[in-house]
Write a structure and sequence with these properties.
CDP-glycerol glycerophosphotransferase, Spore Coat Polysaccharide Biosynthesis Protein SpsA, Chain A, two-stranded antiparallel sheet, EC 2.7.8.12, 14 helices, nine-stranded mixed β-sheet, transferase, alpha/beta, hexosyltransferase activity, globular, Glyco_trans_2-like, 2 domains
């Protein structure tokens, strides 16, 4: 008896599109040129004001693997959710329309999932900057060890891998876990990826599966941290993710999440403190107190100067926090380390160290 060849799994790709006419062709080309050929690409034109919708339609006209859904503008989360309503594949993944995927990306993820039986897989990424491709050191660290069918207690630090688009999900898992993307808020990736890591078994792969384009024109969401709405959205999505981890109720996972994951990007906001508006400072300070007030950022995985800044924010010492950030920026290098009777600490002469909790100045053994 002869048996037919097993059908290759179908990968559904959701591509939300808004004002990306300059980058969309390269994005779609990378999806359609994957070594894993069995793909359906669902492009959601989210009311784009430029020619992005027409570009997507032209791809659909010449390649039956592409379908385009045109909607009014509702934002990234809503566009991804709309795309999910149209997918039919065994697996689902996400691709932002100004980025690209390396040619072996989806075959690598599919091969791992077919072998492990996991609910989803995640690979490393590189930032595509003007001077080339760079793998973030923290991302390389999270993905250094190949892990198959892991659970969150095996590798709680992986909660720091918050991206939507370097992951491939078994569609049956996505639907049974009730996953979706928050709508009407920026930074929607973290709440959903957090829920996925808590709910499923996953593969962690060292291979780079995504090229994240870093725009230099100031238009991307991650380049607008000085705005009040950006900060409000950041706090809201952190709040949502923290709530999920608290409900999971594993003390070690919660501690690692709060100290190493939730605090991880605060330094990007601390750099905005000098000259920030009063309302922005008040929102920053309130959020830090809400999420770390009973523990303090001095216990976090932030670099030493940012742990100090976090403590100053907790204490509502705005002028000192601004002085520290300006001093650090002016140095152009890590602040000096010195040793006194209590051990190693950072030396920041722009504030009175005797007015600061010693723990906020301390340098850990690996930081000396």
């Amino acid at each position: 008896m002869r048996f037919g060849r097993r059908r290759a799994p179908l990968v559904s790709v959701v591509v939300p599109v808004y004002a990306v006419e300059a980058w969309l062709p390269a994005c779609l080309d990378s999806a359609l040129e994957q070594r894993h050929r069995d793909v359906e690409v669902v492009v959601v034109d989210d009311g784009s004001p430029d020619e992005s919708g027409e570009i997507a339609d032209s791809y659909a006209a010449r390649d039956p693997r592409v379908r385009v859904v045109h909607t009014d503008n509702h934002g990234l989360g809503a566009a991804r959710n709309e795309g999910l309503r149209h997918v039919t594949g065994d697996y689902v993944t996400f691709l932002d329309s100004d980025d690209v995927v390396p040619r072996d990306a989806w075959s690598t993820l599919v091969r791992s999932l077919e072998g492990s039986g996991s609910d989803f897989a995640t690979g490393s990424i590189v930032r595509w900057e003007s001077d080339g491709l760079h793998e973030p050191p923290w991302m390389r660290r999270l993905h250094a060890t190949r892990r198959l069918a892991a659970g969150i207690t095996d590798h709680p630090e992986i909660l720091g891998d918050v991206f939507a688009w370097n992951k491939m999900f078994r569609r049956s898992f996505w639907e049974s876990a009730g996953l979706s993307w928050p709508e009407g808020v920026r930074y929607e990736d973290q709440p959903t990826t957090t829920r996925a890591f808590l709910a499923g078994r996953f593969d962690v792969l060292p291979e780079v599966v995504y090229h994240w384009r870093i725009r230099d024109d100031g238009t991307s969401i991650t380049q607008q941290r000085s705005s009040l709405q950006d900060l409000a959205d950041r706090w809201e999505t952190k709040r949502m993710a923290l709530r999920s981890v608290e409900e999971y109720a594993d003390p070690r996972v919660l501690e690692i999440f709060r100290d190493r994951v939730l605090a991880g990007d605060l330094h990007r906001y601390f750099t905005e403190i000098p000259g920030c508006p009063d309302e922005w400072w008040s929102l920053l300070q309130a959020g830090v107190v809400e999420m770390w007030g009973d523990r303090s950022l001095v216990h976090s995985g932030l670099p030493p100067v940012h742990r100090l800044t976090g403590w100053l924010v907790e204490q509502d010492r705005r002028a000192d926090a601004a002085a520290v950030m300006e001093y650090a920026a002016g140095l152009g290098r890590p602040v000096d380390r010195v040793t006194d009777d209590e051990g190693p600490r950072i030396d920041v002469p722009v504030i009175d160290r005797h007015s600061v909790d010693r723990a906020a100045l301390a340098v850990r053994e690996h930081e000396v």
